[in-house]
C-alpha cells in the first residue's frame, strides 16, 4: 500500500507556491500543483510534480482538480492554500468590482477548495490545511484596505475552521510571511498607480511605490520564498504543528508592535515609512 502523502499547492507558478512545491517534493510527498499559468510550472513537472491548470475563481476548474486527485490517489492529505494577490489603491478610487474579485480569489476560492477536500480528510481522521496569510492579516497599511480585508478575514476564518475540524484529526495552520521577494510588489504597483496615482492620494502612492522599490532592490531587505517553504515543510512534518508560523523579513517585529502597542502608535510607525 502506498503511504506517500498527497499534497495540493495552489498558486504554484511562482514565488512562495513554487518554492513550497519544490520543498514538498524534496520531502518525498506526491505533489499536485495548480495555477492559471500552466506553462510556468514546467520546471515543477520536471521535478516530479503533477501540474494542472486551475483558476481558483472558477467552480468547474476546482471540481476537476479535486476529481482528478480523488481518481488517482483517493484524496488530498495536505492542502496548501497559497493562491492570492493584492489590489492596492485608495478605498475611494478602487471599484467594488475589483474589490469583489479580491475576495473571490483570496477567500471564496480558497474556501470552496477547502470544502471539497475536507470529506476525505474527515473520513481518514487526518489532514493538514495550510493557509498562507500574511503579516497583513494582523497589521494594515494605507492603500491596501481590500487586501488587508481579505487577509484579516482569512485569519478569523482559519481560526473558526480549526475549532470545527480538530475533532477529526485535521490541523489548520496559518502562515504569516513578512516581506518576501517575489513578483507580488510588481503585480500590485502598476494597477495601484492607475487607480490612485494621479488623484488626491498620488503623493501617498508615490511614497509606497518608492518603498516597494527600495525593498525589492536593497540586498537583504526581503527574504527569499524558500524561507516560507521551509516553515510550511516544518508544519507538514510536525505531529502537532503550531497554529501560526510567522517568518520572513520584518514579520516578527511588525507583529510584536501590532500586538503590544496602540493603534495610534502603529499608525504613526507605518506612516513614517512611506513619507
List keywords for this structure.
alpha/beta, 275 residues, 7 strands, seven-stranded parallel sheet, 10 helices, globular
Give an overview in words.
The chain has 275 residues and is α/β, with parallel strands linked by helices. Helices cover 52% and strands 13% of the residues. It has ten helices and seven strands. The protein has helices at residues 15-26, 42-47, 59-73, 96-124, 145-165, 184-196, 202-217, 226-237, 251-260, 263-272, and strands at residues 6-10, 30-35, 50-53, 78-81, 127-132, 170-177, 244-247. Strands 3-2-1-4-5-6-7 form a seven-stranded parallel sheet, with helices on both faces. The longest helix has 29 residues, at 96-124. The protein is globular, with a radius of gyration of 19 Å.
